[in-house]
Amino acid sequence: MSGPVYQYRFMIGFVSTTEPAPDATPVPTADVDRSDPEYRAWLKEAVRKVRAESGRSADTHLLAFPLPEHWGIDLYLKDESTHPTGSLKHRLARSLFLYGLCNGWIRPGRPVIEASSGSTAVSEAYFAKLIGVPFIAVMPRTTSTEKTRLIEFHGGRCHLVDDPRTVYEVSAALAAETGGHFLDQFTYAERATDWRGNNNIAESTFHQLRAERFPEPAWIVATAGTGGTSATFARYVHYMQYDTRVCVPDPENSCFFDGWTRGDPDATSDAASRIEGIGRPRMEPSFVPAAVDRMMKVPDAASVAAVRALEAAMGRKAGGSTGTGLWSALRIVAEMRAEGRTGSVVTLLCDPGDRYLDKYYSDGWLAAQGLDIAPYTRTLDRFLATGEWRE
Q1: CA torsion angle for 223, 246, 6, 376 (degrees, to 10)?
Q2: How many helices (DSSP H) and strands (DSSP E) are in the chain?
Q3: Confidence bin at 210 (pLDDT 50/70/90)
Q4: Where is the Tryptophan synthase beta chain-like PALP domain (predicted)?
Q5: Which of 345, 322, 284, 327 has its CA nearest to residue 87?
Q6: Which of 100, 232, 325, 389 is placed for a possible disulfide with 347 were both Cys, Cβ 3.0 to 4.6 Å?
Q7: What number does CATH give the domain 57-83+196-386?
Q8: Are 182 and 170 in contact (CB under 8 A)?
């Protein structure tokens, strides 16, 4: 069995491109007079509705993964599947809509457009419907049918493309044709979220840990699609002066690991990620490599084995990105145990598995993809039973 690759690296001199290309920056158009009382009233009401939605949403649970207490290591999953739209991307969509509204980019009656692999678009369709604007999701044709159904359920329209690498250009073109706004999560995710606090995912996690036996985790494991979540965690940790480290696992067919390891902001991948929601063909502007401490390259079969192990251990189905993070988190637990260290580790339950019954929970899909999860399942079963990690 070929195991995952692990790397630590200080990214001195490697600065992520965090400003969009000039032609990617939304340009205010002359069709809306921003001093017009009617527009100002619409804007105030739209912002009120989005902020009120946040006030109605309780925080997400921090679930304890069952490990032997005598190991002296606690593992938690921040369950983002309990958001109204069922995923971690609900937080991002709310931030992106507030960012677009307050910048004057989202306008009454004009469509909002997004390039997405599905979950972000589900959440954005929800917020578009909330403020009464049209929504178009530009997605790979391989996106799960359940995500497509959910986008349409919330009133959105799906625009499917054959080549995942074209989602950016197609989204920008649709925005230009319709006079709408391209939200561009892959550029704006890391800046639309207030990483210093304001109940972001990092502040919430540390608040929930405050009464645990290890309130300051040794590691936080956050997978990357846009890179916004890992950036929020890493920045918050540095801002609060914690000793916590941040690890970003990367699936197959993604360039983040190679770009981070080589210090190459121009790294690319020719194939599309099979783990929906994470892994990208280019180094996204919202991925901030210099902020994180470690990356892991995780085989897709290991990710699937991990989500099935999660169901066996906790009775919860989750998406493949959760499996990528859980595999890495358990590997870190094994390292800590082998080194005689105690502490806590946090990873994310990103979205529910019922969106992927025809993929990660389908043996037929695994066979069609040439994925053999048996060796990784044995590794996980052995570790959870004996504390011994062998690949």
Answers
A1: -50
A2: 13, 11
A3: very high
A4: 66-351
A5: 322
A6: 325
A7: 3.40.50.1100
A8: no
Q: How far is CA 334 from CA 4, 67, 339, 376, 379, in A?
A: 14, 11, 9, 14, 11
Contact 92, 192 (CB under 8 A): yes
Residue 81 pLDDT: 94
Topology of 87-190 in CATH?
Rossmann fold (3.40.50)
Sheet holding 135-140, edge to edge: 157-161, 135-140, 112-115, 181-182
Cα–Cα nearest to 135, from 174, 103, 85, 79? 174
The two three-digit tokens of residue 227, written as one number: 């890179």
Starting at the earlier edge strand, list the strands of the sheet with 5-8.
Answer: 5-8, 294-297, 245-250, 219-221, 343-349, 73-79, 62-65
Residues whose CB is less than 8 angstroms from the CB of residue 80 and which lie 6 or more positions away in sequence, other chains included: 60, 87, 88, 90, 91, 201, 348, 349, 350, 351
Residue 314 exposed, middle or buried by CB count within 10 Å (0-12, 13-18, 19+):
middle
- Sign for the pseudo-dihedral over CA of 330, 318, 219, 117: positive
d(CA 116, CA 161): 11
Q: Give the predicted TM-score (pTM) of the model.
A: 0.87
Transcribe 317-374 into DSSP letters: -B-HHHHHHHHHHHHHHHHHHHTT--EEEEEEE-SBGGG-TTTTT-HHHHHHHT---H
Percentages helix, strand, coil for the chain (3-state, rounded to 5) are 45, 15, 40
| Helix H or strand E encompassing 126 | helix 119-131
Nearest to 294 by CA among 325, 320, 322: 325
The DSSP line for 194-207 is: -TT-SS-HHHHHHH
- Determine the residue type at 21: A
SS3 376: helix
Run of H or E residues at 139: strand 135-140
Distance CA 48, CA 41 (A): 11
CATH 3.40.50.1100, the chain: domain bounds: 57-83+196-386, 87-190
Task: Give tens-digit pLDDT for 245-261.
Answer: 999 999 999 999 999 99
Determine the pLDDT at residue 391.
87
